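Morning - zinc ion inputs below, output right after.
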Amino acid sequence: MNAELLNRLRKEVETERENLLAELEQLGADPYSEKVSRIAGIDDNFADSAAATAERSEQLAFIEGARDRLAEADVALARMDSGEYGVCADCGQEIPTARLEARPLSILCVNCAAKRS
Ligand SMILES: [Zn+2]
């Protein structure tokens, strides 16, 4: 992978990571643990109401998704540092540039990603 492409993708992953951290912070969620100190916008007095419960579980699902993507971003950045980025973490084949450009967090080729999900 050429340095220019790597730099561009690194910036995208870093931006994504910062956005995720900001979103999690806004929701009162610790980005690296299960702890949710508070859920913004939900009044404790209404914590038992069905609407609040539904909204809360929606937010928790969002937080989980954001944490997953954050973990992926961390792994992608670590692989950029170690020079492994762009090579599938499972089968060792090169990941096509088009896939990396479409989804810079990818550490798996399309085939291995399909197998895992
Ligand atoms: Zn693979």
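Note: The chain has a mean pLDDT of 88.

O.
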